[in-house]
């Protein structure tokens, strides 16, 4: 489970940052008619989000999460700033589970 936590944490931060950049791109696109940034950032964020979903599945299967919980963690990459919150909560949950398993 510990080996799956690090890729999840990295992807949660990367996807969260890319989502914020994408939001700026969307403001530029729909507010100011400048669509160059969103055309570049949107596919990158989409690809990274797919990898994030895989890392959530990997961690969730190893941690034996329920499907609804796993789906909630997956949705963390779709709302600005939520992925940072979800990452902290998931990390704490996994570390608590690892500590309980060692005791």
TrEMBL record:
The lineage of its organism: Bacteria, Bacillati, Actinomycetota, Actinomycetes, Streptosporangiales. It is found in: Cell membrane. It holds the Pfam family DUF3817. This is DUF3817 domain-containing protein. Keywords: Cell membrane, Membrane, Transmembrane, Transmembrane helix. InterPro entries: DUF3817_TM (IPR023845). The keyword Cell membrane applies. Residues 5-91 form the DUF3817 domain. The chain crosses the membrane at residues 12-28, 40-61, 67-86. It is a multi-pass membrane protein.
